[in-house]
Design goal:
The structure holds two protein chains of two kinds.
Chain A: H1 5-12, E1 25-31, E2 36-45, E3 48-57, H2 60-73, H3 78-82, H4 86-92, H5 101-122, H6 136-140, E4 141-142, E5 145-147, E6 154-155
Antiparallel strand pairs in A: 1-2, 2-3, 4-5, 5-6
Chain B: E1 4-5, H1 16-28, H2 38-58, E2 65-68, H3 71-85, E3 92-96, H4 101-112, E4 116-120, H5 130-136, E5 141-145, H6 159-168, E6 172-176, H7 188-191, E7 195-199, E8 210-214, H8 229-232, H9 240-274, E9 282-285, E10 295-300, H10 305-314, E11 317-318, E12 320-321, H11 324-327, H12 334-338, H13 343-347, E13 349-353, H14 360-380, H15 382-389
Parallel strand pairs in B: 1-11, 3-4, 3-5, 5-6, 6-7
Antiparallel strand pairs in B: 2-8, 7-8, 9-10, 10-13, 12-13
The chains are: A alpha+beta, B alpha/beta.
Chain lengths: 173, 391
């Protein structure tokens, strides 16, 4: 696994690890089946992310992504934070191996869920289900093409089995 | 700080005698064993001497050994070769649910072409019940393929019993013994299998070389067609350098096996005994008794394997993991699933495999490093916090 120096730095020295008691917003994504789970806690003051903390169960990428994400989001306004994408995180990390790009998806998604949680609470809505089940489609789409998540070969949309490595593409995580 | 290599299941350094022998071939035996000249004859002699040594390791007739490029080719040849050669008899194969992907994907490839397969489940220790194998065999079964030892959890299978069942039912029995041959005694006369796959690296030889034992009378098509090498069973100019390396490793393995097994067992026992002083909340996978002496598989709760491997790598300690992220497969190991390990726990699985040169200090250093790494990762993990809050 070839990780960039930035990824390794964020992995070895993750920033903003922890929880925020009575957080203004909490977002949790992923599940242990895939081996990646992230929880993001937000403290919002004056529509700004005054503090942000994360907890992650996952590989080197997952931890680095969480750390970088919290760095990118800290201090931003809600509106600015809503614009942070998984691509931003991956770029800030100087890139991730292709089969780890889904880890960066989790980071951005966890942040957006936390923001949504905050907004829902503000609006007095009942807190939605925190855990989001990863759908298989999102795992293997990169741009317009679909790739087998197991061997990186290109697969056609809707294909049930990868013809190169014979992996089952329909299994739900 | 020196490197500690506890990942011999992935790669193992070559013994000095093996290296010497290979260099000698590179330097002095440059002929093609098939050539009709002196250099060729010398090479051919070297090849057949190597075959004798390897046959000695598994107690078979040298003519029953085919040299191949490793465990994967050996397994592919066995499964596909027997399947394709016996179509008039049937097109059904029986395996277990913890086979290596070389077996699984070979079988899947055949299934795309019309073969059928039944997978027999193992118990929570990773062992298959021979009676279940017997039940799975049908009129149209032509092959049973059940591994001798499992490379992820180390469990040893009751292969002799299965071989007997296969013989009675007149089906061929293949066993993937890639992590067994050269490590624990594998005697083809006692085993009774028709086909045994093995590879050189697990017993100190080079990677990229292996063998397939094919019992006389086994109907099998070659995987590689071309020249007439290996008695028309495996085409291609022989990798003499690698084969000689493997043969020297085989001789040394035969001579030293008993002592090595004692050493492995003592190190394995030490690791398992001292582990609770290093970490808590973990499972030991595999069978406590019927297990490879040089492999320990533990599932550490609340953390993920690749991150453990990376952190240990920073401390110059190499181990292996089968987490989804690490294997690039995005799903948990089918082996761990088959023994009933929960998905989350399976992600935190480490495979520690011992080598010929592994010493007690290596185990101590590993355990000491592991303590810190696990604590650091658990501090980051939402699962650990959840468990401790009792929610």
């Amino acid at each position: 696994m070839i990780y960039s120096k930035t990824v390794m730095d964020h992995f070895r020295n993750p920033r903003n690890v922890g929880v925020i008691e009575n957080a203004a917003g909490v977002g949790e994504v992923g599940n242990p089946i895939c081996g990646d789970m992230m929880t993001i806690y937000l403290d919002i003051q004056d529509d700004r992310i005054a503090d942000i903390k994360f907890q992650t169960f996952g590989c080197g990428s997952a931890i680095a992504v969480s750390s970088m994400l919290t760095e990118l989001a800290k201090g931003k306004t809600i509106e600015e934070a809503k614009k942070i994408t998984n691509k931003d995180v991956a770029e800030a990390l100087e890139g991730l191996p292709k089969n780890k790009l889904h880890c960066s998806n989790l980071g951005a998604d966890a942040l957006q869920m936390a923001i949504k949680d905050y907004e829902d609470r503000k609006a007095g809505k009942v807190r939605p289900e925190l855990k989001r089940k990863e759908s298989h489609d999102e795992l293997h789409r990169v741009g317009d093409k679909c790739y087998c998540p197991y061997c990186d070969s290109e697969v056609s949309e809707g294909e049930k089995t990868c013809s190169a490595c014979l992996s089952d593409l329909t299994e739900e995580h | 700080m020196s490197n500690i290599h506890l990942d011999h299941i992935s790669v193992s350094p070559l013994l000095p005698e093996v290296q010497e022998a290979m260099i000698e071939v590179i330097r002095d035996f440059r002929g093609n064993p098939s050539s009709q000249n002196v250099a060729g004859e010398l090479a051919a002699e070297k090849l057949e001497k190597a075959r004798d040594s390897v046959a000695g390791l598994i107690n078979c007739d040298p003519r029953e050994v085919v040299f191949v490029s490793g465990g994967t080719e050996s397994i592919n040849m066995a499964v596909k070769g027997v399947a394709r050669a016996n179509v008039e008899k049937g097109k059904h194969i029986v395996t277990s649910n913890i086979e290596h992907n070389a077996v699984n994907r070979s079988v899947k490839r055949l299934m795309h072409l019309g073969w059928k397969a039944t997978s027999v489940a193992v118990n929570e220790k990773g062992r298959v019940d021979p009676d279940e194998v017997a039940k799975a065999i049908r009129e149209d079964t032509i092959l049973v393929s059940i591994m001798h030892s499992n490379n992820e959890v180390g469990t040893l299978q009751p292969v002799e019993e299965i071989a007997e069942i296969a013989k009675k039912r007149r089906v061929f029995f293949h066993t993937d013994a890639v992590d067994s041959v050269g490590v624990v005694p594998v005697d083809v006369q006692k085993l009774g299998a028709d086909l045994i796959s093995f590879a050189s690296n697990p017993f100190g030889g080079p990677t990229g070389v292996g063998g397939l034992f094919i019992r006389r009378g086994t109907r099998i098509f070659p995987l590689l067609d071309g020249g007439i090498q290996e008695n028309n069973r495996r085409a291609g100019t022989e990798n003499l350098i690698g084969i000689v390396g493997m043969s020297v490793a085989a001789t040394l393995a035969q001579e030293n096996m008993a002592a090595r097994v004692v050493q492995y067992r003592s190190l394995r026992d030490l690791l398992l005994r001292e582990l609770p002083n290093s970490i808590d909340e973990y499972f030991v996978n595999g069978h406590p008794e019927h297990v490879l002496p040089n492999l320990v598989s533990i599932s550490i709760r609340y953390i993920e394997g690749e991150s453990v491997v990376l952190m240990l790598d920073d401390e110059k300690i190499a181990v292996s993991t089968r987490s989804a992220c690490a294997t690039g497969s995005l799903r948990t190991s089918h082996v761990l699933q088959s023994i009933g390990r929960e998905y989350a726990d399976a992600q935190g699985t480490l495979i520690i495999s011992l080598g010929i040169q592994t010493r007690q200090e290596d185990i101590h250093r590993f355990l000491s490093a592991l303590r810190g790494v696990v604590q650091t990762l658990r501090d980051i993990s939402p699962l650990y916090k959840k468990a401790n809050r009792g929610s």
